[in-house]
Amino acid sequence: MADPLLSVRDLRTFFYTENGVARSVDGVSFDISAGETVGLVGESGSGKSVTALSLMRLVRPPGRIEPGSQIVFDGVDLTALDEKAMRAIRGARLAMVFQEPMTALNPVFTVGDQIAEVVRVHHAGNKKEAWARAVKMLETVGIPSPEQRANEYPHQLSGGMRQRVVIAMALIMNPALVIADEPTTALDVTIQAQILELLRDLQQKFGTSILLITHDLGVVAETASRVIVMYGGEIVEEAPVGDLFARAHHPYTEGLLNAMPQVGHERERLATIPGTVPPPTKWPQGCRFHDRCPYAWDRCANEHPPLYQIGGGHVSRCHLAVEPERRAHKHEPMVVA
Amino acid sequence: MTAAAPKSPLLSVRGLVKHFPIKKGLFGKPSGYVRAVENVSFDVMPGETVGLVGESGCGKSTTGRMILRLIEPTAGTVEFDGINLLTLDARAMRKLRRRIQVIFQDPFSSLNPRMSVGSIIREGLTIHKIAEGAAADARVKQLLDEVGLRSEYMSRYPHEFSGGQRQRIGIARALAVEPQFIVCDEPVSALDVSVQAQVINLMQDLQRDRGLAYLFIAHDLSVVEHIADRVAVMYLGKIVELATSAELYREPLMPYTQALLSAVPVPDPTVKKSRVVLKGDVPSPANPPSGCVFHPRCQHPAKDAACTQIVPPLEEKSPGHWVACIKQPPTGVDWSVQKAAGATNPPTRYLPVIETPT
Predict the structure, then answer these.
(1) Is B210 helix (H, G, I), strand (E, B) or coil?
(2) Å from A261 to nearest chain B CA?
């Protein structure tokens, strides 16, 4: 097998705050192959967005990527690059789609100018060529009458259109990997369906790899081929998408799947995960999920679980992998609301 | 639920309208109107949960706020327990707010950061002269306990709490005055999935224990299906479909509802959806389309010129199932009337198959 496009090894991103060191991303390793869509799921505070910012090298002080972390992209370790070299990659081979299209766009420039600027910054054409490419890209992302729209300002566009502009901006240099951080969270469900379809089409057309960060398991089920679940700054489970939904191994993943109300399912009581995600300055000892876990036993409070291999590319950071009989002993978790 | 004995509704909304004027300049005359809510009527029975769903700008929040009289309606009536709310003066309305409460979407901006949790919850008790002093303290503690928070939290401030805990505080505040009816405006939209489930369960428990009625406004259809007895779907200021939750999700008849339901991502990779992807955006409520407001985006195979002319009435297609579509039979809009408006396609039942497990 060829080398993966992106290979993250032991990524640790800490924030040095007044309240102590926030270990937001704490030893994350994963790969993304060319043309693959990987879903990264987790709740607020799980470390998924900081992972994305770290890959883009956009972590600002008091945060920093710790020494020993590796982000190998296209055979180059991004953590070793200076800002100038990084700038040549960012927006060109590696691009990002942000959650909030209104804040990701500059309100005082036309959308055409903003997309064309990306081309200009990367020395990929003169002013006229850049503009022509921008208009072409707007058409590709499904914006009607792109010549006219290119001359408009972000506030003149609807939320769905703005997100298409942000996607056009990310794709204009034909990147190898696009990191999409909650690209549809701010959108209505019918517009979300349009945008997800667009991302799928564009991926097929250009062969781009996508790292899709989301809290919505439905979005992941429909777009990703592999899923990574984060909790407490760590990867707690990783599996091919079908496997994850059919045989979730980690109690946190299981809890998330059960907590979702689903259209067309009978109205019973929703399962919940008691408590909340702990703050990144105070990850619990042992397994970081143990006080909210309905299976936890003494080992979980004392021994930090490694990522166990379950087979078929499925890994889980849970001692149940080696003591599966414990799954029969479900109980009330330690935590109280 | 469908064949329930005809009780009298707790809340009865009739012909509610809100037009916001579009003004040019400081003293300018309105140059037009944003038709945010257009002739909305529905009932909420005691102890019932009615869901109000739709996308941004469909008028669902404006409807909720008009019921609370946080926005004054342009026209229509809102009757609560036989009292017409819109004719009440400020004093009488304030008194009635003891019986109608609200839970807002954003647990960060809806709690005063300079008040302790205890005083936030106690405020309603004082204003409505329900309890004072030690009795009020005891009541606050009891309320915190009921919403699953420790009573020591009384003296803390909102910023010390997570989103889910703040939403519990908002619920305790609403419950303090023992209302019969709560308008819940996107109460779980800002919360993570696991926390969202906790809050939904709490709301259902409280409803069961206290016989509360809810108007549950949300854009998340799976949440609404879970919590609501009946659901009203809004599009461009109008209710386009109203049915029991089970019926609406099993047999959505309005083409817009069909598209909305099919757009919800399914957290099951073995299910392949044949999705109705709507083209374009919602038209501006300042300049809504003629006839059926959904016609420019409609996928009903019998759609024709009549849809651009005739405003479809909200009709009862089967018992308790109301739909605004002249192309879904049966319809009271006669074929002769439709033909006169340029119809070429007689009404035919259209129900796309949305989910097919592979």
Answers:
(1) helix
(2) 6
The pair of structure tokens assigned to B225 is 């299906």
List chain A residues with CB under 8 Å of B281: 158, 160-161, 191
What pLDDT, on a 0 to 100 scale, did the predictor assign at position A289? 95
Three-state SS for A131? helix
DSSP string, B109-146: TSS-TTS-HHHHHHHHHHHTTS--HHHHHHHHHHHHHH
What is the C-alpha end-to-end distance of chain A, expressed in Å?
A: 48
**pLDDT tens digit sequence for B279-331:** 877 888 889 999 999 999 999 999 999 999 999 999 999 999 999 999 999 99
Q: How many CB pairs under 8 A join A and B?
A: 128
Chain B residues close to A262, C-beta within 8 Å: 222, 266-267
pLDDT of residue B356: 54
Nearest by CB to residue A270, choosing from B200, B250, B266, is B200
> Mutual orientation of helices A189-206 and B255-263 as an angle, nearest 10°?
50
| Mean pLDDT to the nearest integer, B11-30 | 87
Q: What is the pLDDT of residues A72-108, one digit of tens each?
A: 999 999 999 999 999 999 989 999 998 777 788 999 9
Give the whole-angstrom CA distance, residue B260 versus residue B256.
Answer: 6
- Tell how far CA B251 is from the center of its chain: 20
CB–CB of A43 and B164 under 8 A? no
A contact residues 178-207, partner B, Cβ 8 Å cutoff? 188-194, 196-197
Q: What's the full length of chain A, in residues? A: 337
Tell me, what's the pLDDT at A1? 53
- Say yes or no: A147 contacts chain B, CB-CB below 8 A: no
Per-residue pLDDT of B249-275, as tens digits, reads 899 999 999 999 888 888 888 887 777
Which strands sit side by side in the sheet containing B100-103, from one edge to the other? B100-103, B181-185, B213-218, B49-53, B230-235, B238-244, B321-323, B315-318
Q: Does B266 touch chain A (CB under 8 A)?
A: yes
Q: Are A178 and A96 in contact (CB under 8 A)?
A: yes
Residues 159-218 of B with CB under 8 A from A: 162-165, 192-198, 200-201, 204
Q: Does B353 touch chain A (CB under 8 A)?
A: no
- Which of B148, B198, B263 is facing A192, going by the closest CB pair? B263
Q: Which of A102, A265, A272 to mutate to test the interface with B (most CBs of B within 10 A)?
A: A272
Mean pLDDT over each residue of chain B, to the nearest integer: 90
Between CA B65 and CA B59 the distance in angstroms is: 10
Nearest CA in chain A to B252: A264
Give the contacts of A170 (CB within 8 A, at least 6 positions apart).
A91, A95, A96, A97, A178, A180
Comparing A3 with A149, the larger pLDDT belongs to A149
Question: Burial code of A131-151, b = ≥16 C-beta within 10 A, e = fewer?
Answer: bebbbebbbbbbbeebeebbe
- Sort B173 into a burial class: Cβ within 10 Å, 0-12 / 13-18 / 19+: buried
A83 by DSSP, 3-state: which?
helix
CB contacts of B275 in chain A (<8 Å) are 193, 197
Each residue's pLDDT tens digit, A199-232: 888 888 889 999 999 988 889 998 999 999 999 9
CA B11 to chain centre: 13
Which residues of chain B neighbour A192 with C-beta distances below 8 Å? Answer: 263, 265
ipTM of the complex as predicted: 0.80
Q: Are B219 and A189 in contact (CB under 8 A)?
A: yes
Report the alpha-carbon distance of residue A138 to residue A157 in Å, rounded.
13
